[in-house]
Amino acid sequence: MENTTAPATLVTADGTPLKASLQRALRQRRRQAFMLVLPLLVFIFVLFIMPIATMLTRSVDNPEVNSILPRTVIALQSWDETTGELPSEEVFKTIAAEFVAGSQPGKKVINKVGKRLNYELPGMSSLFRTSTRKIRRMKTGPYREKMINIKIVGKRWADVATWRLLKREGDPVTASYFLSAMDMRVDSKGEIKSKPVDNQIYKFLFVRTFLMSIGITFMTILLGYPIAYLLATLPMRHAALLMILVLLPFWTSLLVRTSAWMVLLGNEGVINDLLVWAGFLGDKSRLALINNRTGTFVAMTHILLPFMILPLYSVMKTIPPSYMRAARSMGATQLRAHIKVYFPLTLTGIGAGTLLVFILAIGYYITPELVGGQSGVFISNQIAGKFDSGNWGLASALGAILFVFVLLLYAVYDKIIGIDKMKLG
Length: 425
What we know:
By secondary structure, the protein is mostly helical. 66% of the residues lie in helices and 1% in strands. The chain has helices spanning 18-58, 63-68, 70-76, 89-102, 110-118, 124-136, 143-148, 154-157, 160-168, 176-181, 202-233, 236-247, 254-265, 270-277, 293-316, 322-329, 334-345, 347-362, 366-371, 379-389, 392-416, and strands spanning 184-186, 192-194. It has a two-stranded antiparallel ribbon with strand order 1-2. Helix 3 (70-76) runs antiparallel to helix 4 (89-102) and helix 11 packs antiparallel against helix 12. The longest helix has 41 residues, at 18-58. It is flat. The mean pLDDT is 88.
């Protein structure tokens, strides 16, 4: 006869089922683990995710015209800009009333519209400043005739391009900043066109930034690979001393290191003085090593070199010396064994170092600003300049393009090598 009695349920000392007790303990551990990492999550959210989200938002945000001239924006919706005729008297009357309202003492927000539109069409800022004083004196119409006849700036109000710009920028979301960041613009007919070659700035800066960053990355590989190899193969006593020398720059401020290069590379600097003293150069033929691309290249290579050495060292340290001995025992020369056996095993370290150095290089600001001059600055310097001048929209658009490029680079690295194989020391 079969035994049909159900198996007894395991319980703890207090009578709670063992399964329920284990699940409760697991939930408690998860809560404790979450509370431990919560400060880090808050830190990342506040100081990393929120600034990036704000940057992406500001790159398309366009509130000035829509919020300060709301009735004008609505009135312009019914205006047919394709006819080439100016808006009606009613539109002129509406914008005149909003000029008066926006220039009241304690408010004075109308000039913000002029500043915003000046980014798209030079001269708009002065148009709004001058027109504000004149319009406030207008008690009655016809506003259209009076605004067109304002001295010096009245011809702007008689230009259909001004009203097309007002209508276009009345949208609270705009692509104008991204168009400017790509050296493009919307012309008076509403068509997207490239700016004249002489006025193209950002494309050139992006290309310069990427090419110089590639060159700096390549140079750090050439200099960092033998140093990392020595660190991984020397006896511990000598390797420890060499590691201290590698890490020593981290103990010095970035500004101090950059200033030191200014002293070394200057026209009256140490390097030029040594070359003149040794007779290689005349006193009037000193080398231009600073305030150009050479200064940026040299200083940034030195500053970013440890970021290449450490990933390489972390990978080389894990390669057993027996691999090279086995290759030598099978007849390979030292060079051939290194190329065929050792070098392929270090590719993950080269990839990690390349990714790290390149991403750091394209976003560098202080070093190019101090030693780069006009020909050695990066796109990051232009972004900082736009923030300083108050053009946050364009600065955010430039930063967003750089951010997207970094994400694409990260995705390519993950596809080719695998981000799980990255070792940073």
